[in-house]
Amino acid sequence: MNRLFTAEIVRNDPMDNGYFALQVTPDVEISEPDIGQFFMIKTGESIDPLLLRPFSFVDFIPPNDKYPNGSLMFLIGAVGKGTNILKHLAVGMRLSVIGPLGQGFPPVASDEILFIVAGGIGIASVLGLTNVNPNTPFFYGVRTKELIPDMVWFNYTGINTFTTSDDGSIGFAGSVLELLEKQVSEFKRGCGGKIKIYACGPNGMYRAMAGMNLDADVYVSLETPMACGIGTCLGCAVDTVNGLKMVCKDGPVFNLKDIIWDG
Ligand SMILES: Cc1cc2nc3c(=O)[nH]c(=O)nc-3n(C[C@H](O)[C@H](O)[C@H](O)COP(=O)(O)OP(=O)(O)OC[C@H]3O[C@@H](n4cnc5c(N)ncnc54)[C@H](O)[C@@H]3O)c2cc1C
Ligand code: FES
Asked: Scanning 101, 116, 163, 182, which has the fewest C-beta atoms within 10 Å of its C-beta?
Protein backbone atom coordinates (compact mmCIF):
# COMPACT_ATOMS: atom_id res chain seq x y z
CA MET A 1 0.00 0.00 0.00
CA ASN A 2 1.36 3.46 -0.91
CA ARG A 3 1.00 5.98 1.84
CA LEU A 4 2.19 9.32 3.05
CA PHE A 5 4.03 9.15 6.34
CA THR A 6 6.61 11.04 8.34
CA ALA A 7 9.94 9.53 9.23
CA GLU A 8 12.65 10.59 11.65
CA ILE A 9 16.25 10.87 10.51
CA VAL A 10 18.34 8.53 12.66
CA ARG A 11 21.57 8.79 10.65
CA ASN A 12 22.78 11.14 7.97
CA ASP A 13 26.43 10.54 7.14
CA PRO A 14 28.21 12.42 4.37
CA MET A 15 30.96 10.63 2.44
CA ASP A 16 34.02 12.30 0.90
CA ASN A 17 32.79 12.00 -2.67
CA GLY A 18 29.39 13.74 -2.66
CA TYR A 19 27.36 10.76 -1.56
CA PHE A 20 25.59 10.49 1.76
CA ALA A 21 23.95 7.63 3.61
CA LEU A 22 20.56 8.42 5.08
CA GLN A 23 18.67 6.24 7.53
CA VAL A 24 15.14 7.08 8.64
CA THR A 25 12.59 5.36 10.84
CA PRO A 26 8.91 5.75 9.92
CA ASP A 27 6.49 7.12 12.54
CA VAL A 28 3.97 4.45 11.47
CA GLU A 29 4.15 0.87 10.31
CA ILE A 30 4.82 0.68 6.56
CA SER A 31 4.56 -2.23 4.16
CA GLU A 32 7.87 -3.93 3.45
CA PRO A 33 9.15 -2.58 0.12
CA ASP A 34 10.20 -4.81 -2.78
CA ILE A 35 13.70 -4.30 -4.18
CA GLY A 36 13.45 -1.82 -7.03
CA GLN A 37 10.56 0.12 -5.49
CA PHE A 38 11.23 3.66 -4.36
CA PHE A 39 10.12 6.44 -1.99
CA MET A 40 9.35 10.12 -2.66
CA ILE A 41 11.06 12.21 0.03
CA LYS A 42 10.56 15.89 0.90
CA THR A 43 14.08 17.22 1.12
CA GLY A 44 13.49 19.77 3.88
CA GLU A 45 10.98 22.00 5.59
CA SER A 46 11.23 24.90 3.14
CA ILE A 47 8.80 25.18 0.21
CA ASP A 48 11.78 25.29 -2.15
CA PRO A 49 12.13 22.70 -3.55
CA LEU A 50 8.41 22.10 -3.37
CA LEU A 51 8.39 18.69 -4.98
CA LEU A 52 9.41 15.51 -3.24
CA ARG A 53 12.35 13.66 -4.80
CA PRO A 54 12.43 9.94 -5.72
CA PHE A 55 14.97 7.60 -4.09
CA SER A 56 15.39 3.84 -4.15
CA PHE A 57 15.98 2.29 -0.76
CA VAL A 58 19.14 0.27 -0.25
CA ASP A 59 17.82 -1.68 2.71
CA PHE A 60 14.73 -2.07 4.85
CA ILE A 61 15.47 -3.19 8.40
CA PRO A 62 12.37 -4.91 9.82
CA PRO A 63 10.80 -3.63 13.07
CA ASN A 64 12.97 -4.26 16.14
CA ASP A 65 13.23 -2.99 19.74
CA LYS A 66 15.15 0.11 18.67
CA TYR A 67 12.93 0.97 15.71
CA PRO A 68 9.41 -0.43 16.24
CA ASN A 69 8.42 0.51 12.66
CA GLY A 70 11.70 -0.63 11.13
CA SER A 71 14.04 1.64 9.25
CA LEU A 72 14.94 2.51 5.69
CA MET A 73 18.44 3.15 4.38
CA PHE A 74 19.23 5.27 1.34
CA LEU A 75 22.41 6.00 -0.59
CA ILE A 76 22.13 9.39 -2.21
CA GLY A 77 24.31 11.49 -4.49
CA ALA A 78 24.13 15.23 -3.77
CA VAL A 79 23.56 16.53 -7.32
CA GLY A 80 21.24 19.53 -6.99
CA LYS A 81 19.22 21.69 -4.68
CA GLY A 82 17.06 19.07 -2.95
CA THR A 83 19.76 16.50 -2.34
CA ASN A 84 22.19 19.14 -1.07
CA ILE A 85 19.60 20.31 1.48
CA LEU A 86 18.81 16.72 2.50
CA LYS A 87 22.50 15.98 2.98
CA HIS A 88 22.76 18.59 5.75
CA LEU A 89 19.60 17.76 7.72
CA ALA A 90 20.20 16.87 11.35
CA VAL A 91 19.45 13.60 13.09
CA GLY A 92 16.05 13.88 14.81
CA MET A 93 14.43 15.92 12.02
CA ARG A 94 11.28 14.52 10.43
CA LEU A 95 10.70 14.18 6.70
CA SER A 96 7.52 13.65 4.68
CA VAL A 97 7.77 10.45 2.68
CA ILE A 98 5.46 8.62 0.25
CA GLY A 99 5.93 4.95 -0.48
CA PRO A 100 6.79 2.31 -1.21
CA LEU A 101 6.02 3.20 -4.82
CA GLY A 102 6.18 1.53 -8.22
CA GLN A 103 6.96 -1.98 -9.35
CA GLY A 104 10.21 -3.62 -8.29
CA PHE A 105 12.29 -6.33 -9.91
CA PRO A 106 10.43 -9.55 -10.80
CA PRO A 107 11.39 -12.79 -9.06
CA VAL A 108 14.22 -14.95 -10.37
CA ALA A 109 13.03 -18.42 -11.45
CA SER A 110 14.79 -21.46 -10.01
CA ASP A 111 16.35 -22.31 -13.39
CA GLU A 112 17.72 -18.77 -13.92
CA ILE A 113 21.07 -17.27 -12.92
CA LEU A 114 20.99 -13.65 -11.86
CA PHE A 115 23.59 -11.08 -12.94
CA ILE A 116 23.38 -7.57 -11.44
CA VAL A 117 24.72 -4.48 -13.20
CA ALA A 118 25.09 -0.98 -11.75
CA GLY A 119 26.47 2.17 -13.30
CA GLY A 120 27.44 5.00 -10.90
CA ILE A 121 24.73 5.88 -8.37
CA GLY A 122 22.56 3.12 -9.91
CA ILE A 123 24.17 0.94 -7.25
CA ALA A 124 21.56 2.23 -4.75
CA SER A 125 18.67 0.51 -6.57
CA VAL A 126 20.28 -2.89 -6.96
CA LEU A 127 22.48 -3.27 -3.89
CA GLY A 128 19.62 -4.89 -1.97
CA LEU A 129 19.51 -7.66 -4.58
CA THR A 130 22.96 -8.82 -3.60
CA ASN A 131 21.44 -9.95 -0.30
CA VAL A 132 19.32 -12.55 -2.10
CA ASN A 133 22.40 -14.59 -2.96
CA PRO A 134 25.83 -13.27 -1.97
CA ASN A 135 27.42 -15.21 -4.85
CA THR A 136 25.43 -13.34 -7.49
CA PRO A 137 27.87 -11.71 -9.91
CA PHE A 138 27.63 -7.96 -9.41
CA PHE A 139 29.09 -5.73 -12.16
CA TYR A 140 29.73 -2.22 -10.96
CA GLY A 141 31.04 0.47 -13.28
CA VAL A 142 32.34 3.87 -12.20
CA ARG A 143 34.13 6.67 -14.00
CA THR A 144 36.94 6.64 -11.45
CA LYS A 145 37.83 4.98 -8.12
CA GLU A 146 37.05 8.09 -6.03
CA LEU A 147 33.38 7.86 -7.03
CA ILE A 148 32.79 4.58 -5.22
CA PRO A 149 30.60 5.13 -2.15
CA ASP A 150 31.77 3.80 1.19
CA MET A 151 30.06 0.43 1.48
CA VAL A 152 31.11 -0.10 5.10
CA TRP A 153 28.05 1.91 6.07
CA PHE A 154 25.70 -0.60 4.48
CA ASN A 155 27.00 -3.81 5.99
CA TYR A 156 27.13 -5.67 2.68
CA THR A 157 29.81 -8.28 2.73
CA GLY A 158 30.85 -11.16 0.55
CA ILE A 159 29.44 -9.72 -2.67
CA ASN A 160 30.93 -11.26 -5.79
CA THR A 161 31.81 -7.88 -7.29
CA PHE A 162 33.42 -7.16 -10.66
CA THR A 163 34.38 -3.49 -10.55
CA THR A 164 35.23 -1.53 -13.69
CA SER A 165 36.43 2.04 -14.14
CA ASP A 166 36.61 4.19 -17.24
CA ASP A 167 40.07 5.51 -16.27
CA GLY A 168 41.46 2.16 -15.06
CA SER A 169 41.96 3.45 -11.47
CA ILE A 170 40.22 0.37 -10.09
CA GLY A 171 39.29 -3.07 -11.41
CA PHE A 172 38.84 -3.76 -15.10
CA ALA A 173 39.77 -0.73 -17.23
CA GLY A 174 36.86 -0.06 -19.54
CA SER A 175 33.13 -0.22 -19.71
CA VAL A 176 31.07 -2.29 -17.29
CA LEU A 177 29.13 -3.62 -20.30
CA GLU A 178 32.32 -4.87 -21.95
CA LEU A 179 33.09 -6.97 -18.89
CA LEU A 180 29.46 -8.09 -18.55
CA GLU A 181 29.39 -9.27 -22.17
CA LYS A 182 32.61 -11.28 -21.64
CA GLN A 183 31.30 -12.91 -18.46
CA VAL A 184 27.90 -13.71 -19.94
CA SER A 185 29.42 -15.43 -22.96
CA GLU A 186 31.90 -17.30 -20.72
CA PHE A 187 28.99 -18.46 -18.58
CA LYS A 188 27.02 -19.53 -21.66
CA ARG A 189 30.02 -21.49 -22.95
CA GLY A 190 30.41 -23.11 -19.52
CA CYS A 191 27.06 -24.31 -18.17
CA GLY A 192 24.78 -22.58 -20.67
CA GLY A 193 21.87 -21.85 -18.31
CA LYS A 194 19.31 -19.05 -18.58
CA ILE A 195 20.50 -15.63 -17.44
CA LYS A 196 18.45 -12.82 -15.97
CA ILE A 197 20.07 -9.39 -15.69
CA TYR A 198 18.91 -6.62 -13.37
CA ALA A 199 20.45 -3.24 -14.10
CA CYS A 200 20.39 0.30 -12.79
CA GLY A 201 22.40 3.09 -14.34
CA PRO A 202 22.17 5.95 -16.80
CA ASN A 203 19.95 5.77 -19.89
CA GLY A 204 23.05 5.64 -22.09
CA MET A 205 23.97 2.33 -20.46
CA TYR A 206 20.49 0.93 -21.16
CA ARG A 207 20.55 2.06 -24.78
CA ALA A 208 23.90 0.33 -25.22
CA MET A 209 22.53 -2.82 -23.56
CA ALA A 210 19.52 -2.76 -25.88
CA GLY A 211 21.93 -2.91 -28.82
CA MET A 212 23.93 -5.84 -27.43
CA ASN A 213 23.26 -9.49 -28.07
CA LEU A 214 23.24 -10.56 -24.42
CA ASP A 215 21.00 -13.64 -24.78
CA ALA A 216 19.44 -12.84 -21.40
CA ASP A 217 16.22 -11.51 -19.94
CA VAL A 218 17.17 -7.93 -19.01
CA TYR A 219 15.26 -5.70 -16.56
CA VAL A 220 16.27 -2.09 -16.00
CA SER A 221 15.28 0.53 -13.46
CA LEU A 222 14.61 3.90 -15.13
CA GLU A 223 15.52 7.10 -13.30
CA THR A 224 13.34 9.74 -14.94
CA PRO A 225 12.78 13.03 -13.11
CA MET A 226 9.43 12.80 -11.28
CA ALA A 227 6.94 15.38 -10.01
CA CYS A 228 4.16 13.41 -8.29
CA GLY A 229 5.53 9.86 -8.10
CA ILE A 230 2.04 8.35 -8.07
CA GLY A 231 0.92 8.35 -11.70
CA THR A 232 -1.17 11.53 -11.81
CA CYS A 233 0.99 14.26 -13.43
CA LEU A 234 2.02 12.17 -16.48
CA GLY A 235 5.45 13.78 -16.26
CA CYS A 236 7.47 10.58 -16.28
CA ALA A 237 5.98 8.90 -19.36
CA VAL A 238 8.13 6.45 -21.31
CA ASP A 239 7.33 4.98 -24.71
CA THR A 240 7.05 1.18 -24.71
CA VAL A 241 5.83 -1.52 -27.08
CA ASN A 242 2.69 -1.57 -24.89
CA GLY A 243 2.06 2.18 -25.28
CA LEU A 244 3.00 5.06 -22.99
CA LYS A 245 3.78 3.94 -19.44
CA MET A 246 4.43 5.95 -16.28
CA VAL A 247 7.84 5.21 -14.82
CA CYS A 248 6.59 5.98 -11.29
CA LYS A 249 3.54 3.69 -11.41
CA ASP A 250 4.22 1.06 -14.09
CA GLY A 251 7.98 1.03 -13.36
CA PRO A 252 10.58 2.09 -12.51
CA VAL A 253 11.58 -1.46 -13.48
CA PHE A 254 10.85 -2.44 -17.10
CA ASN A 255 11.84 -5.27 -19.37
CA LEU A 256 14.53 -3.68 -21.56
CA LYS A 257 13.06 -5.15 -24.73
CA ASP A 258 9.76 -3.29 -24.10
CA ILE A 259 11.29 0.19 -24.10
CA ILE A 260 11.25 2.20 -27.33
CA TRP A 261 14.29 4.46 -27.14
CA ASP A 262 13.72 6.60 -30.21
CA GLY A 263 9.92 6.68 -30.17
C1 LIG B 1 12.90 5.76 -9.22
C2 LIG B 1 14.10 6.61 -8.90
C3 LIG B 1 15.01 6.20 -7.92
C4 LIG B 1 16.12 6.99 -7.62
N5 LIG B 1 16.96 6.57 -6.66
C6 LIG B 1 18.04 7.29 -6.34
C7 LIG B 1 18.92 6.87 -5.31
O8 LIG B 1 18.71 5.83 -4.68
N9 LIG B 1 19.98 7.67 -5.02
C10 LIG B 1 20.22 8.82 -5.70
O11 LIG B 1 21.21 9.49 -5.41
N12 LIG B 1 19.42 9.24 -6.68
C13 LIG B 1 18.32 8.52 -7.01
N14 LIG B 1 17.47 8.97 -7.99
C15 LIG B 1 17.76 10.26 -8.64
C16 LIG B 1 17.29 11.39 -7.71
O17 LIG B 1 15.88 11.35 -7.62
C18 LIG B 1 17.74 12.75 -8.25
O19 LIG B 1 19.14 12.81 -8.23
C20 LIG B 1 17.16 13.86 -7.39
O21 LIG B 1 15.77 13.95 -7.62
C22 LIG B 1 17.80 15.18 -7.70
O23 LIG B 1 17.18 16.15 -6.89
P24 LIG B 1 17.88 17.56 -6.64
O25 LIG B 1 16.82 18.49 -6.12
O26 LIG B 1 19.09 17.40 -5.81
O27 LIG B 1 18.38 17.96 -8.06
P28 LIG B 1 17.71 19.00 -9.06
O29 LIG B 1 18.14 20.36 -8.62
O30 LIG B 1 16.26 18.72 -9.22
O31 LIG B 1 18.46 18.55 -10.38
C32 LIG B 1 19.88 18.51 -10.41
C33 LIG B 1 20.33 17.77 -11.65
O34 LIG B 1 19.92 16.39 -11.56
C35 LIG B 1 19.09 16.05 -12.67
N36 LIG B 1 18.03 15.18 -12.17
C37 LIG B 1 16.97 15.51 -11.41
N38 LIG B 1 16.21 14.43 -11.17
C39 LIG B 1 16.82 13.40 -11.80
C40 LIG B 1 16.54 12.05 -11.93
N41 LIG B 1 15.45 11.48 -11.39
N42 LIG B 1 17.39 11.29 -12.65
C43 LIG B 1 18.46 11.81 -13.22
N44 LIG B 1 18.79 13.09 -13.14
C45 LIG B 1 17.99 13.88 -12.43
C46 LIG B 1 18.54 17.37 -13.18
O47 LIG B 1 18.24 17.29 -14.56
C48 LIG B 1 19.71 18.31 -12.93
O49 LIG B 1 20.67 18.19 -13.93
C50 LIG B 1 16.35 8.21 -8.32
C51 LIG B 1 15.44 8.61 -9.29
C52 LIG B 1 14.34 7.82 -9.60
C53 LIG B 1 13.35 8.27 -10.63
S1 FES C 1 5.83 11.41 -11.69
FE2 FES C 1 3.78 12.04 -11.99
S3 FES C 1 3.01 10.52 -13.30
FE4 FES C 1 4.96 9.79 -12.79
From this structure: 182
49 lines ligand 1 (CB under 6 A): yes
Check pocket membership of 252 for ligand 1, CB cut-off 6 A: yes
Is there a contact between 105 and 34 (Cβ–Cβ < 8 Å)?
yes
Let me know: does 173 contact 164? Beta carbons within 8 Å. Answer: yes
d(CA 182, CA 192): 14
Q: How far apart are CA 253 and CA 37, in angstroms?
A: 8
Ligand nearest to the CA of 54: 1
- How many residues make up the chain in this entry? 263
> Hey, where are the domains in the chain?
3-101, 112-221
Q: Which atom of ligand 1 is nearest to the CA of 77?
A: 11
CATH of span 3-101: 2.40.30.10
* Architecture per CATH, 112-221: 3-Layer(aba) Sandwich (3.40)
User: Residue whose CA is closest, atom 11 of ligand 1?
Assistant: 76
Ligand with an atom nearest the CA of residue 233: 2
Give me the tens of pLDDT residue by residue for the chain, a chain 263 residues long. Answer: 558 999 999 999 998 888 999 999 999 999 889 989 999 999 887 788 888 999 999 889 999 999 999 999 999 999 999 999 999 999 999 999 999 999 999 988 888 889 999 998 888 888 877 766 667 888 999 999 888 887 666 655 557 788 999 999 998 999 999 999 998 888 877 777 889 999 999 999 999 999 998 889 999 999 899 999 999 999 999 999 999 999 999 999 999 999 998 75
pTM over 0.85: yes
Between the CA of 53 and the centroid of ligand 1 the distance, in Å, is 7
Alpha carbon of 223 to ligand 2 centroid (Å): 12
